[in-house]
Design brief:
Blueprint (H helix, E strand, L loop, with lengths): L2 H7 L2 E10 L2 E8 L14 E7 H6 L4 E5 L9 E4 L4 E5 L5 E5 L4 E5 L10 E7 L2 E6 L3 E7 L2 E4 L2 H4 L12 E6 L6 E5 L3 E5 L4 E4 L8 E6 L5 E5 L4 E5 L2 E4 L11 E5 L2 E5 L4 E5 L2 E4 L5 E3 L4 E5 L2 E6 L2 E5 L4 E5 L1 E3 H42 L1
Antiparallel strand pairs: 1-2, 2-3, 3-4, 5-6, 6-7, 7-8, 9-10, 10-11, 11-12, 13-14, 14-15, 15-16, 17-18, 18-19, 19-20, 21-22, 22-23, 23-24, 25-30, 26-27, 27-28, 28-29
Length: 365
Amino acid sequence: MSTKKERCLNDILMINCCIVNKDIYVAVGEKDHGEKYDPWEEWPPTHLVFYYKKRIRRGDEPWGCIRFGKNNFKWSKIVHINNSNVLLVDNERGVETRDISNKISNREQQIPITTIGNVQNLKNIHGTVYAVGGIRGVARREGKDKWVCISNEIKKLGLKLPPLQVVFNAIDGFEAYKDLYAGGGHSDMWHYDGEHWRAIDLPILTMRISAIVCADDKQVYAVGRFGHIVQGRGDKWKMIEQDLTTQDFTDAVWYNDRLYLCSISTLYELKDGKLSETHFGNVAPRRAGSLYVNEGLMMTAGNNSMAVYDGKVWDVLYGGVTFEDEKDMIITQQIVKNSEEMVDALNDLVDAVKAEVVTNLSTVY
């Protein structure tokens, strides 16, 4: 590992990512344990990690990075504005734009709290950037320092409910200014027609929505905790039944002809109603967690890995494991699973014996 690459990636945990154009990929990361700080008093420094593919073709170092100070731009979300610029918004509504090609940054005014609460996610919907967050907040970016709240109609409906039930974590749309779907909380999903919002009645009551995708197949997909997936549009919705995983889904995108969705550790794909794990080939990224689609490419980043897919070949930029390593990991996971099942069976047997002993003692006395 080169000195610059090590400086950019050492002890960095990737939390989300962005494709700026076909040659520039960005990930937001946080320092793991390389610096001393009190996690109860301070937040780890946020890093932007850049990968410039065109530098590889010139034989140059492809990695670059910048660092924000401690307690600055924590839990940042990132989205592309165009093929040169990205937008960052942190959890407390701080805003920065950055021209990646020319390395020029611009700190903008903080989004007013009257517009949106703590920001949970960003989405570029057909060229227009939206932010979602606390108390069913949805804000649309209309230029520098200009964010417009479009969710006042429904924000007031959540004031008497627990905060976690009315936080929007996700948004997507079939058009830039209408036919939008936003959601989060406990199956709390809403549709916006360009003027008004209405609640969507999902076929599950306690789904913690983490991602929404308005897909090319004209369907809407929402994914969330415990491996839950719902599909539909308008008033027709159904659960996608699957028994492959009960992990929490953290993100989802539509790429080519299927839905890709991930947990913090595994990438899955859903096609024709069937869920399966993604097969990467000889080298696979160690983790998933975050997904992004732009410029005909799909990117995944999570923990200590980054990878980009062009529809045919996976390019693992950092944190790859070989096929043999992956087989070993699968075998180890199966051994652990079998051991857990044996422990559960033994515990059940012990409980049954205890119950039998108590019953016999009761009979004796």
